[in-house]
Design brief:
With 400 residues, the protein is mainly β. It has helices at residues 2-21, 368-399, and strands at 25-32, 51-55, 59-80, 85-105, 114-122, 125-143, 206-210, 220-224, 240-243, 254-261, 271-272, 278-298, 304-323, 332-340, 343-352. The chain has two helices and 15 strands. Strands 1, 2, 3, 4, 5, 6 and 9 form a seven-stranded mixed beta sheet that branches. Strands 10, 11, 12, 13, 14 and 15 form a six-stranded mixed beta sheet that branches. Strands 7-8 form a two-stranded antiparallel ribbon.
Length: 400
């Protein structure tokens, strides 16, 4: 009975030590496109927890809520692709309870289409993991052009030609009158030319000459000015426009396999020699119903170097030759994405020559051994307390 009491005491002390090591917690976390904004929609029916952002987005936000923190550190890390390329890291100490909105800008200007993961650690221990992706399935972010001012031209009055004594037809001011009816005297003088309007393509008003009943009557000029619509300036909001399709229909078919190679029927390759001019994207598809498959290739700074879209039906395979627009692929890392009906279906990362790592935040993922150190210390303390309690109880029995 006394031995059981000692064990219970050691367990209780161990629990207290564990709770005391990290008292706080991250109660919730989400990815959004605005500070303190709502959680992003889910666009992939096969992954109901995957948050989706529009293609071309440049900044995302991590919104987290914490509770009972005691000057403890929360670290936010963002990685890209299957190789977990580090893109962002921020660490900050928190006390008490509250919320925080953390801006995560892309180091290359925009987030390339693909899969991302956000890790939130407390004191080196993983607390939350959020998966998200940038995809055309929910829209495309594009910069808004600045509003242009339309100049307004003021119509200039045209010179009125001297009327003929007996006009018999309608003539414009710049036209010579032709011979008229018998018995009508035509003046030999030429009307002065009309001044040119230099303010823009403004229609010159026409003068219609209405003859009177008597040949000697003075003609009446009726001017009919052309109507010029006044320009209505349209204000365009500054910032970014997100074009979201009204409905997103999941694709019927599937891309069953995909690889990058140096030959039309070659094996999968992830490393190509310096000076490579052409690579090949090989993929197989099944169950397609006249659906579009798009092949897009990014360089390591997020620029699109190749794109091709084509519709497919039924099942089969395809070989797409990817040539560099510069003639040869520069040394570096490349990303090939396959989209099926606007949804990202597959991502493949490959390299040419010696990869140059761009200067950017380079967080080091916390290793399993580092994260296990606090638990090992607590376990050792618990064992020490257990043996101490047993030794004390043996001394008490010996003294009796």
């Amino acid at each position: 009975m006394k031995r059981l009491s000692c064990v219970a005491l050691a367990v209780c002390l161990t629990f207290v030590l564990v709770e005391g090591a990290y008292a706080g917690a991250i109660t919730s976390a989400r990815m959004t496109d605005a500070p303190s904004g709502p959680e992003m929609p889910k666009c992939d029916p096969d992954h109901p927890t995957l948050a989706c952002f529009p293609s071309g987005i440049s900044v995302v936000y991590v919104v987290l809520e914490y509770a009972e923190m005691q000057d403890e550190q929360i670290r936010v890390e963002v990685y890209y692709g299957a190789d977990n390329i580090p893109l962002f890291e921020q660490a900050k100490n928190y006390t008490g309870s509250g919320s925080e909105s953390i801006a995560v800008p892309s180091p290359t200007g925009i987030f390339a289409d693909g899969l991302y993961v956000t890790n939130l650690d407390i004191g080196g221990l993983l607390s939350k993991t959020i998966y998200w992706q940038a995809t055309e399935a929910v829209g495309v972010v594009s910069p808004t052009p600045p509003p242009t001012e339309t100049p307004t031209a003021t119509p200039m009055p045209s010179a009125t030609p001297a009327p003929s004594p007996t006009p018999t037809r309608t003539a414009t001011p710049t036209e010579m009158p032709s011979p008229a009816l018998t018995g009508t005297t035509i003046p030999t003088e030429t009307p002065s030319p009309t001044p040119t309007d230099t303010m823009g393509p403004v229609q010159t008003p026409t003068a219609t000459i209405v003859p009177a009943e008597s040949p000697t009557a003075t003609p009446t000029l009726v001017e009919t000015p052309a109507e010029r619509p006044s320009p209505t300036p349209t204000e365009t909001p500054a910032g970014l426009i997100v074009t979201v399709p009204e409905t997103v229909t999941p694709p019927v078919g599937d891309i069953t396999s995909g690889r990058v190679s140096d030959a039309p029927d070659g094996p999968e390759m992830i490393k190509f020699p310096t000076g490579t001019t052409t690579t090949f994207v090989l993929f197989e598809y099944a169950g397609m119903a006249d659906e579009e498959i798009k092949v897009r290739v990014y360089d390591q700074v997020g620029n699109i170097v190749f794109e091709q879209a084509k519709n497919y039906g039924g099942s089969g395979s395809e070989r797409v030759a990817v040539s560099s627009p510069a003639g040869v692929f520069a040394d570096g890392r490349y990303l090939t994405n396959l989209y099926l009906g606007g949804f990202l279906a597959r991502s493949m990362i490959w390299e040419v020559g010696e990869v140059v790592v761009l200067p950017s935040p380079t967080p080091t993922p916390t290793s399993l051994a580092t994260r296990a150190v606090p638990y090992m210390i607590v376990a050792l303390l618990g064992l020490l307390l257990l043996f101490s309690a047993g030794w004390i109880m043996r001394r008490i029995r010996t003294a009796r």
